[in-house]
Each structure stands twice: as structure tokens, then as C-alpha cells.
Design brief:
Layout lengths: L3 H6 L2 H36 L3 H54 L3 E2 L5 E3 L15 E3 L38 H33 L10 H17 L15 H9 L3 H10 L1 H5 L6 H24 L9 E4 L5 E3 L1 H31 L10 E7 L6 E6 L7 E6 L9 H18 L5 E7 L7 H4 L3 H21 L6 E7 L1 H9 L12 E5 L19 E4 L4 H12 L16 E2 L16 H10 L10
Parallel strand pairs: 8-9, 8-10, 10-11, 11-12, 12-13
Antiparallel strand pairs: 1-2, 2-3, 4-5, 6-7, 7-9
Helix pairs in contact: 2-3, 3-4, 3-5, 3-7, 4-5, 5-9, 9-10, 11-16, 13-14
Protein name: Alpha/beta hydrolase
Organism: Streptomyces lateritius
Pfam families: Abhydrolase_8 (PF06259)
Length: 608
Amino acid sequence: MPTWQQLRDVKLNEYTDAADGWGKVSSRSNADKDRVDNEMLARIRKSQEGKAAEAAEADLDQLARNYQYLHTECGLVRTALNGLAAELAAPQKKLKQALEDAENLKFTVHADGSVEYPAGGENLIDKKPIPGGTANGSQFGLFSPTAPPMYQGQGNSPLLNPPGLYPGLGGGNPNQAKAQAVANAIAAAVREANEIDGRYSGVLRHLKADPGLKVENKDLADAAADTKRLQDAAGKYVAASDIPQGRSTEENAKWWNGLTQEQRDEYATLFPASVGALDGIPSTVRDDANRMVFAESKAKYEIELAGIPPEPKPKLVSYGARGGMVYSQKWLDWHHKYEGRQADLKGWLHGMNAIESRLERPAGSGMPEAYLLKFDAEKDDGRVILANGNPDTADHTAVYVPGTKTKLSDIEGDLGRTDALWSQTNGLVPNQNVSTITWFDYNAPNDIPAATLNKAGEEGAPTLRQFMNGMETAQGGPDRSHTTVMGHSYGSTVAGMATQQDRGAGPLADDIIAVGSPGMQVEHASDLGVGKEHVWAMGGDGDDVLVRQGGRLVGHGEGFTIPTDKGFGGNIMASDAKDHGDFWVPGRNSLFNQGAVIAGLHDKVTLD
């Protein structure tokens, strides 16, 4: 435990200088991870084949994982040291002020923190000087039951013997109260420093890696635990409540831009999920934060899944007299404890493997670099926002909103659709930057009956609008990129409802595409706020019956119009899709028409 001498002498700049060093290692590790992913792996995958290439890829994947871990852990050390220095500054200042007061008053501060004060005044009865004494610091201040006597023989209660109130009539030494105040200030400063030291030393003791060169799941899971410990310890230095919640994207951006680079790094390291979900800040920042969340979550789930014992056998013991099945008690216990969780973990990891496969595909492999703009496995059926190419710098940006039955566990198909959209659009405008985004940030209906209700759209529409506003903010304004929102099936309902949100912020996008739509919750294309000439719709073979049946329930009754109806007033695009999910096959007209809209080449679209 620190003494007052140690608190006085500690050089806080040494902590901050050390923090700077750890911060540089963290930043360098992040840059090295990106270099491995986007340069080294890309070259091997482009030019090498065979077992040697596969082995090299595995080694480089491990190296990138190591750098990810270093980025996180070194960032936590940096934040812990900065937090420790920042918090110790206050008690150190209080201590130095108390020591200065003691020096000015000619008091002596002893090694144990007690304060010796001289004689003061005289007793008017016997004219004898009132003796000096020693004050000991206490958390109770002047009213401490252990405070020293103020005057010999007068007891030790300041209430009964106020210092200096009746000097010469048995009153106390006037120096005693001042000395007691100094002693209390010293003790309080040391207690505060001890509490701070205890919080941070516990965290720093945990910030260490196992020996060896291979970062494994347990290391990444431990990094998540380290982050939680530091969140608890450093709450007075940097808190989650500092991060904007429920504000406009412009306010989010203003908050972020007002931080120093070191502060940005600390928030992103300590609260990666919150920073990663913050609309309006740069996509590169969100991607780094969400990759941290993703890696640690995947490691945690894989560890948990591996720890679930095998399903006991036999499951069935016998059949009852009436044909009922009798299960073994061991199997019943396992079923109640593990079966549902095991299914969740397997589903999440299946979807996460698809996301990881896309994240690990480097630029130069036929697709641009991917950006993970949000990730949460456990909210409803999961949350994923993943961009092909950086939307902040894109000339053309498309946001694809999936529909009914979308889940993290099955996200691979939706990622494939935005891959196809990027390839098609990029082929039409090869000298321009294109970004296509899978936006799954709402609780999609799990079945057709649920898709006939408005609830999912009402909850998802404001979130989609916020994301679109944030993308525009990060891009630098509405004219910096040509934007398209594409809703498939119920996703088009969410998109349509989002156009009615925050109309004062301007149109939801430049163009809106409804694919296999059961309705957009508006009567006419002109109600979507982008001009009916910028509303596009297509359906597949047999799709009309499906969406119309659902649409009449989700919409406004008999007068309801779906986007592929002539009366809706938008552009009906030619489609050669064979069914409700067949709109993204390379080489087909359906995909070409979508790409032409995304690229802003409206005159190339084939209308039905």
C-alpha cells in the first residue's frame, strides 16, 4: 500500500510515458494484422496453390490472430496506466496541498502521517502556555473518537471543547484544529490513492500472456475478461456512459471528432461493442472495434461448445404401455441443461464462420476489403452489418435489407447476395469505388404469419434510418455518394417504413429497390420520399402470389398496392428470377438491373 511519501514522490508522467509506449505497440500490432490480412495473404492466395500454400495461409492466419490479441492486450495496458495516472493526480494534489499547508504553519509531518503542532496561546487563569501536540489523520475528521486531547485534562471531544473558542479559560490550542485538518487531508489522500492502486493493480496483474507464440481461444476469452475487469476498475477515468446513446449521428460524429487520438483508442479498446455500433463515426474505427468483439465472442462460444458433454445414450429406455416413449433420466437432464444452448452455439458459430471467411478474404482476391460495422450474436436471432468496400469513400453505396427468416446462423446466403451485387456493380463502373452492405440489424420475422404483422418493421425502421443517416455523416454529406437501399421480401417493408422516419433529415437514399416485396407500408411510390422515378421493383416467377398473400395482411387492406403493381407508380424492372430468392444469380438480367440502379446507370435498366 502506498505511503504518503510514495504518493508525494511518484512521477505520474512515467506512467503516461509507459502508456504511450504500450499504445504504440497496440497500434503497430493492429497495422501489422491488417498488413498480414490484406497484403501477405492476398499475394499467397493469388499466386500459390497446393499444400504448401495452405500451410502458409494457416500460419499467416495464426499470425494475424496473434496481432489481434496484442492489439487488444497492449491497448488495455495503455488504458490502465493512463487511468492510474489520471486518477492518482487528484489525491497527489490534495496531499501536496496538505504538506504545503503544514510547512506554512510550521507544523511537522511525521513518517506515519501524524502532524506535530507547537504550543499556542496561554491559559488566562494560570498564564501557562497551552502545549502543542500531535494530530493523527482519521476518516472521521475533527469528530474522530480517537482524536488527541485538545488540552491536557480537558477530554478529547471537539464538541465539548471547541478549539480556540475560549482561549485562556480552558480552551484548546488553536493550532490543534489546523493540524488535525492537515492530518486528515494527508490520510484521506493516502486512502484514496490506496483504493485507486488496488483497483488498477488487480487489473494489471491479469494483463499477461501465456508463454509461446500461439494465441488460442482461451487467450482471446481471457482478453474479454481483462476488458471487463478494466471497465470496472477504470469507470472513473473512462466510462461507457461517456459514449453517446440515442443521439443524432451528427452528435455522435462531433463527440468522436472532439476526442484526442489516445482517447479514441481507449474508448475503442475498452468498449468495442459500443464504439463498433456507433452510427456516424468512421467505418475503419467500427470495423476494428467489431473485429475485436467478433474474435473474442467466437473464442468464447467455441470454448463453451467444446465443454458441453456428449449426449448420453440411450435416449429412449422403452415405450410405455400406451405407446408413450420413456427417456433415460441422464438424457433428460442433459436435454434440459444443454440441448438448447448447444443448438444456439452451433448456429452462431456456423454464421460466424461465414462472416470470418469473408473477413479473411483480402482485397485483391476478386472482392474489396470487408468492414464489420456491427456484430452481436445473442440479440434476438443475431445482428450483423458487413460491408464490401469502405462505404465512407464509396462513389456508389448499396444497403441490402434481408427479409423473413433471416438469422445469424444462416447469414451466409445474404452475404453471398451482397457479394454478387458488388461484383455486378463494380463491373459496370470499374473505375469507381463501390460498397455493398448486408444490413441485418433488426429482429426479422421467423415465419410467414409473423411477416404479416408490422411489429418487426416498426422496430427496425428507425434503426435503418439511423444507419443511413450515420453513413451519410461519415461520408461527408448527401452528395458524396450515390446511395441505394434494397429491401428483399419483408426487408422492403422495413425499408418502406424507414422512409417515414426522420423525414427532416432528407430522403432515405437516392434510389430504393424492392425485391419480392409484400408491401412497403405506403400507397404509392411517391410516398417514399425519393421521387417515383427512383423507386424500383422486381418479382420472380410465382413470387407475385406469395407476396400478395402476405402483403394484403401486412398492408392496408383491399386498397393495398405492392411495388410490382402498375398502380404503385414505380419502375418495374424485368426479372428472370425463378423464385422468391433467385434474384442474385450472376449472369442473369435480375442481377444486372439491380447493379445498374446501384451504379446510377438508370438508362441501362430493362423495364418490364
